[in-house]
Amino acid sequence: MVGPLIMQFGTEAQKRRFLPRILSGDEVWCQGYSEPNAGSDLASLRSSAVDDGRGSFVVNGQKTWTTYGQYADWIFCLVRTDASGKKQQGISFLLVDMKTPGVTVKPMLTIGGTPAFCETFFEDVVVPKENLVGPLHGGWTVAKALLGHERTMIGGVGASLRALRRLKRIARETTRAGAPLLDDPMVAAKIARLEVRLRSLEMANYRTLAAAALGHAPGPESSILKIRGSEIQQDCFELAMEIMGHDALSWHDTAGAVPALETWVPSTYCYNRATTIYGGSNEIQKNIIAKLILGLS
Amino acid sequence: MHFSLSADQQLLKDSVASFVKRQSPITRARELRRDPLGYSRDTWATLGELGWLGLPFSEAQGGLGGSFVDLSIVLEELGAALVPEPLISSIVLAGHVVAELGTEAQRAEHLAPVVAGARTLALAHTERDGRYDPLWVSTTAARRGDSYALDGEKIFVLGGHDADDLVVVARTSGAPGELEGLTAFLAPRGAPGVPVSPLGPIDGRRAAHVTLRGASLPASARLGDEGAAGPVLSQALDRAAAAACAEGVGLTRAVLEMTTAYLCTREQFGVKIGSFQALQHRAVDMFIETELVKSASIRAAIALDAGDPVEAAWAVSLAKAQLGVGGKYVVQQAIQLHGGVGITDEHDVGLYFKRMHALMSSFGDEAHHVARVASSPRFTAGL
């Protein structure tokens, strides 16, 4: 998410400072977009950054759904630098070192039983001005460009292909009256229908990526990857649960209770209810396509 | 990797679009529904002159050596205006069989005039009991000296009402469902013992049932070696399925445009109905399915050109199954979003709806292709 943004909007110094460590994996980033009262209506965010007149911003506020914020070295944040005009206009894009005094991270458990989300609090956090990406008050444009990359990523075609393969293995290992479920035409047809949808999306993904390789940034059409991709991710694990039968009731802390292939499936099934919500809910994605591609308003 | 059209392909697309605009707008398809022929021999000749009928055949076969991708470009554009000329039946189905199995002399006599737009072909292959299995042929061909006697019934022979030659498929050996033993024959229109009963299918095109009762065809009418036509027939059916997808892409595109235009003009409660979120989201789902049908169709065309039969069959079935779900969704929701006017015969959306159903149900429906995906070696590869 943030790498392509720094490539597109960053200064030379920012590129030199951040990109090599993203590439090498030495620094892990988290995303500071959503706030308790800025979910789908992201532009109403209130975390503020105030110029202290000594070359820094002072950041105050709260971010939420900060995925794996407890492990991150840096956070890229949308902050309000001007509250006087239209709500989209006073937003800036700021990079914050998670070790800065005043940053507090509070992980929370998800329904999948994993601490995937965090609340991140900022209390008088001092951030040098050279960490501003793009123009002051011009963060909304940067934010939207990032969302295009995010949606393409969230489409998760590769992850779903892996999930589909695992699903087929589970169906092959699971038996009824001695016969693998994968040999049951009704089960095989359910899996094949899922594969039809996924393979079509795979080609749509290739089309988006090929366009990106020719220099076209992912545009509103990336929203279709997010919508169908998130649905398919959910459907893969839903079908896995169905095929597992009684084993679908297992939970990840009962090691050895179910075949190794099935471990974490119920947890992932639960957590994956998030896929149609995060990255802009699918309903928001549809609003975007309706407006920007179909011209409906 | 890229999926942009080459300069030549873009030119081809533009030429077809321009032809459609000038010579075959949707009003023409509407009028030809009432015509006993269902299309125009003059327009067929024009398509031949433009070179589009020779696209899928190699130069050695008397074609232009184009690709299936090129043919798909043509089919998509023609599909967008429901151009009714019999490309799939003449070129993709029967033409492919003659091109692959025919001798040079047979190709010169029976394929070259089709490529030129002077004649048409139809494939008499499907049997009721076989549903969509290309190898389920129980019609028999028994050798009697220098000729064959054919007995059996063929249904929904697309374009069979009028084709100058039928390509008739029969069994010279083996049982229905077996790959070995299928043989194809050329039967000229009006051949004794090959009565053709015209049909008017749901989409306003034309087809025929063909009954073979002791029809006698000379051994010289046989295409290829006895009993060896199975693989080419399977291939022809796969190509026809991919062609239906390419045409279906044009249909979904046209229907989506028509529907969004309607949402932007129709007013209720004092506002454009396109401002209602419930309708916007339905239109977006139509857009998504349009993109997915297109993506899957591109995969099928590329796989057919690449030539690996397992990969091609798999990609074609993925695409045809996607058309069965996505194409259906687009045309059904298009009617819903048009409201009552969408149910009237006067509105074009119904023409697209019915053509889409013909494309969905021909050359294997969704269930058939889903089952084929599940039985492909690709389904269990790498497990």
Tell me what the structure shows.
The complex is a heterodimer of chains A (297) and B (383). Chain A has 297 residues and is α+β, with helices and mostly antiparallel strands. Chain A has two domains: 135 residues, Beta Barrel (Butyryl-CoA Dehydrogenase, subunit A, domain 2), CATH 2.40.110.10; 138 residues, Butyryl-CoA Dehydrogenase, subunit A, domain 3 (Up-down Bundle). Chain A is 42% helix and 18% strand. In chain A, strands 1-4-5-8 form a four-stranded mixed beta sheet. In chain A, a hairpin with an 8-residue loop joins strand 6 and strand 7. In chain A, helix 1 packs antiparallel against helix 3 and helix 4 packs antiparallel against helix 5. The longest helix of chain A is centred in the last third of the chain and has 29 residues. Chain A is globular and about 75 Å long. The two termini of chain A are 29 Å apart. In chain B, a hairpin with a 2-residue loop joins strand 2 and strand 3. In chain B, helix 7 packs antiparallel against helix 8. In chain B, strands 1-4-5-8 form a four-stranded mixed beta sheet. In chain B, strands 2-3-7-6 form a four-stranded antiparallel beta sheet, with no helix packed on it. In chain B, strands 9-10 form a two-stranded antiparallel sheet. The longest helix of chain B has 34 residues. The mean pLDDT of chain B is 96. Chain B is 51% helix and 15% strand. Chain B has 383 residues and is α+β, with helices and mostly antiparallel strands. Chain B is globular and about 80 Å long. Chain B folds into three domains: 113 residues, Acyl-CoA dehydrogenase/oxidase, N-terminal domain (Butyryl-Coa Dehydrogenase, subunit A, domain 1); 107 residues, Butyryl-CoA Dehydrogenase, subunit A, domain 2, CATH 2.40.110.10; 150 residues, Butyryl-CoA Dehydrogenase, subunit A, domain 3 (Up-down Bundle), CATH 1.20.140.10. Classes of the chains: A alpha+beta (297), B alpha+beta (383). The interface between A and B is large, with 41 and 42 residues.
